[in-house]
Specification:
Blueprint: H1 3-18, E1 33-35, E2 52-54, E3 57-59, E4 63-65, H2 75-89, E5 92-94, H3 99-103, H4 109-112, E6 122-127, H5 128-136, H6 140-150, E7 155-159, H7 162-167, H8 178-188, E8 193-196, H9 204-212, E9 217-219, H10 228-235, H11 252-266, E10 270-273, H12 279-287, E11 292-295, H13 297-328, H14 334-337, E12 342-344
Parallel strand pairs: 4-5, 4-11, 5-6, 6-7, 7-8, 8-9, 9-10, 10-11
Antiparallel strand pairs: 1-12, 2-3
The chain binds flavin mononucleotide (FMN).
Length: 348
């Protein structure tokens, strides 16, 4: 892999850790969502059970670290720390794009470090542009095989990121044939395939097309948390030409509201990520139908600043707050919380 790509991955982590790359005006929309307080919960606080099944694995909490890194030297250490947090807390762990290790097997160690503490669910990652290219070149099955050799995965996430590709100076805004390629990946990959965005959101029309491709899960990865446009604008040689795109995306709460009926009808899990920043937000996202929630930048910032201990402490606080909301909505289980009433005063 070229020095440039490794540098880009390092830049991403450095920028996310050191600069304010949240959306400017746009929010997740969770501030418009309220769980309905239940004065007669008919359960004990001690009965609240946060464990949940996801893709055949059992998580202690309905959470996972969203795919972030791999493919450059320091990623080995960062992935090992994130995996230790996920393992200790009992949540899933996503890897960053693994294309680097498919092209250059010497980089596999930067992903394999998650196996020092194997989290209960490990989610691989590759870009939809890459999958489309492999499909066009008739090398999809070989490359998926190489990808699965990098590290033992439970699920493969394919990311859709047209906004990010458009803004990257070295980006590849080449999405033609992407639906056919995702459908082919679903056929050829022995693992469940989840399709995610990277923080600009999957709305109902895209969710419907993904379901038609046969995907096994949709991670809405909506707007309001980390702005990937923002990250790329900070790296752009002429930022004034692209600055108007900083806030593009569909708020996470709206994505969930739109996608839920389609995911429910297809009986596939809907995953919530993009601006998941606390236990109460996790509770709202689950009530909106999410099977589990993904967290990227807040967890990365915690482990970079305070190591594994800080990551575990943050997750412990989220767990406590989630439990409190489960009790206050009368939800003894994650499945019950998915049916808990909420209000959503949104404008479209
Ligand atoms: C440093 C960093 C690197 C990322 N790299 C990837 C990646 O390689 N593949 C991917 O699908 N998403 C990647 N993401 C996007 C996240 O998975 C997530 O969708 C996005 O950051 C929104 O979540 P957040 O608001 O919790 O940060 C990355 C995020 C961060 C913070």
């Amino acid at each position: 892999m070229s020095h440039n790509i490794r540098q880009r991955k390092q830049d991403h982590v450095d920028l996310v850790a050191s600069r304010d790359v949240t959306f400017r005006e746009r929010t997740t929309g969770f501030e418009h969502v309220e769980l309905v307080y239940n004065a007669m919960p008919d359960i004990d606080m001690a009965q609240v059970d946060t464990t949940t099944p996801l893709f055949g694995r059992r998580l202690s909490l309905p959470l996972y670290a969203s795919g972030m890194t791999g493919g450059y030297a320091d990623a080995e250490r960062i992935n090992a720390m994130l995996a230790e947090v996920c393992c200790e807390v009992g949540i899933g762990m996503g890897l960053g794009s693994m294309r680097a290790a498919v092209d250059d097997p010497s980089l596999a160690a930067t992903f394999r470090s998650v196996m020092h503490h194997r989290p209960p669910l490990v989610i691989g990652n590759v870009g939809a542009v890459q999958v489309a290219r492999w499909h066009k070149q008739s090398t999809l099955s070989d490359n998926l095989g190489r990808l699965l050799d990098v590290v033992e995965l439970d699920v493969l996430a394919i990311h859709l990121n047209p906004l990010q590709e458009l803004l990257q100076p070295e980006g590849e805004a080449e999405f033609s044939g992407v639906a056919a390629a995702i459908a082919a990946a679903v056929e050829q990959c022995p693992l469940p395939i989840v399709v995610k965005e990277v923080g600009a959101g999957i709305g109902e029309h895209v969710a419907q097309r993904l379901i038609a491709c046969g995907v096994n899960g949709v991670d809405v990865a909506g707007a309001g948390g980390t702005s990937w446009a923002g990250v790329e604008i900070l790296r752009h040689p002429r930022p004034e030409t692209v600055d108007h795109l900083w806030d593009v995306g569909i708020p996470t709460a709206r994505c969930l509201y739109e996608c839920r009926p389609h995911c429910d009808a297809a009986a596939i899990p809907m995953l919530a990520s993009g601006g998941i920043v606390s236990g109460p937000v996790v509770a709202k996202a689950i009530a909106m139908g999410a099977a589990a929630c993904g967290v990227a930048r807040p967890l990365l910032q915690a482990v970079l600043a305070g190591g594994v201990e800080a990551g575990v402490a943050m997750m412990a606080e989220w767990e406590l707050h989630l439990r409190q909301w489960m009790f206050l909505t009368g939800s003894a289980s994650v499945a019950a919380l998915q049916r808990a009433p909420f209000t959503y005063s949104h404008t479209r």
